[in-house]
User: Fold this.
Amino acid sequence: MDPLEPLIENLRAEGRPRVWSLVITAFGDLVQHRGGAVSNKRLNALLGRIGIESGALRTALSRLDRDGWVDRERNGRSSLCRLSRVGLTQFDPATSVIYAPPRKAPVAVWRLSVALDKGVPTVRLTPADVPPLNSDLQVSGQVERVSDAYKLAFLEPAYRRALTVLGEDLLGIPNALDPLDAAAARLLLIHRWRRIVLRFPEPEPALLPKDCPLPDPRAAVARAYEMLSGPAEEWLSLPQNGAPSMPQADPSFATRFGLSTQA
Assistant:
């Protein structure tokens, strides 16, 4: 059995894959820290591993080029692709959200914020060490009790469904993969995670109900990412499908999910 089949099936279950979106994920996770440019041959090998045909990839790259997201240049018999200036302006803010480290200690001080929109209040409870959003009322202190009813009230059904599929993806990642499989698995993992954290406000684990599909989603993703990164980075360092090795990883890569500071 294909070790990536559970991940690929979960991707297909959502409908026809948005290849251009997968390419953006690939740039953010597997290209930017390796010099920022990638051969179309390497992209073909990577996306081909998850069932994306070369014609679909060419169409996606043409669309991203036309929309100003990527720049392409000829490099011998292939071409090099990199994020354009427009693409980079979208990349940096998203990266800080996607790869933020999981919390290592319980929240000591919380902030209760109330924002009014045409007189209708929106209440948020967040750790006091998280930068505050605009609000009309803020109170900081300790939380004595949080009922499951409160937790359930702030867990969107769509977020719960997204975490359920993410949990299925995490369970579907084998413990040992060859370099290409690990790179493809990391692409699919971050593609799923990127769409969750950039779409939904991320609740603290302490505010998730007991029956939440993942009790600490960010920590679970960080563990899987650490497991996959050794062989995935090896694949990036190997010549591939006629494409040369990619440059050495930027030191900032080691800070993703706070992995460089973990014991």
